[in-house]
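Appendix B, Record 12. Input sequence as logged:
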Amino acid sequence: MTGFVYIIGAGCGAVDLITLRGLNALKKCDTVVYDALIDTELLTYASDGAELISVGKRAAAHSAKQENINALLVEKALAGHTVARLKGGDPFVFGRGGEEIAELQKRDIPFSVIPGISSCTAVPELAGIPVTHRNVSRAFHVITAHTADGERDFSRYAALDGTLVFLMGLGALPEISAGLVRGGMSPETPAAVISEGGTAQQKAVRGTLADIAEKAAGMTAPAVISVGETAAFVFSCSSQPGALSGVSVTVTGTERFTAKLAGLLGSDGAIVRRYSHLRIVRKQVIPPLEGYGCIAFTSSYGAEMFIRHCKEDRIDLRSLAGVKIAAVGSGTAGTLADNGLTADIVPDRFTVTDLADAIADSAPGKVLLLRAALGSEQLAERLAKRNVSFGDVKIYDTVRRPGMPAEHADTDYIVFGSTSGVRQYFEGGSTISGRTKTVCIGAQTAETAKKYTDSVIITADPHTAQGAAAAIKGDRK
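Logged structural output:
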């Protein structure tokens, strides 16, 4: 049975610039064929087990040939897959969406086109530059500076009225500005270059045709060039109030963790880049609970897995009467409380060592540890040292999302919530820039980070998402 192909415009820059229609379609797909310029956070919205296929499509970088991409879409659709062709910006604005659709039509493969927010209008707008303005510019023209036939006569655009917007033109900027002046535009015509538009790394420079190439030297692609009177406007958004206004942060981990911390940081004005490279999978089966006087949870994920186990196996929570519940911190205790279980033991400091001592001091009998497969061994070691009998069950594992591309964090800070998150990030090929400070939740996470990076490392205290946000605020003072 033939599948279906969604040609989806992913928008430009940040994940939240995709349309709601595009996001809903993405969630239904079991194969995602994506370009390099999309925000990789979008890939976390694909269904579990979805095949993620990168085809590049970025200037000056290796990418698949267009004919190979066309063939790939046909192959997956004919195999019965529901395919998302996730394209940066809009599929029909220099996105070759028409070429892909023509190939699908040849094979009678059903498809749907979902428009995207194009960088030609959105990127200048995010930098405070309108492409039209009453009595100044009544039209705008979108021009690619990268053409298949190598055509480079930019002077022919000089006679056009309104704003000129050049895409894929950063490398040709000196030629563009000189060509426009040769064609009759004044050297004093306002011009602007916006790099990495819509992301935490967005930068904009303004000048004139006479000096914009010099001012923009060193800027990185992708970039949008705006030429015309509107390029002199500065209609930038007012800064969001907050202690972290303008501070950029990459948040790593599971989708739930990155969403929570992004919300905390964003409410204080931070520019947040989410890299949700981890997912939680169930590992060992929980043994019969008879004979245990205490169940200890070292994370919210362990608590969630336990609740899921109880529901699937129809275990009545009332059967836990008389069993003490221990939680490593307030977050884990909160997850338990949301599901009808009150934690009897929560240490004042949210570490596994303090949890072990609190459990031992309460003399609960045999303890069932429910924790991550790659979690710290400190809790078990401490309980053994305190002569507490226990069973150790690795209830879940933290794994890297299959197909998740590597990340390069070039933000003021990057946050890791676990030792496994650190390992999966760096061993998956991801890197951080020399200017980026590393914030770790927990001493063990910080020790692990030291094995992979020489950056400044900050340990959050308390060991929670709130603690990480507070650590960044404290470092900015």
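The chain has three domains: 4-116, 121-232, 238-477.
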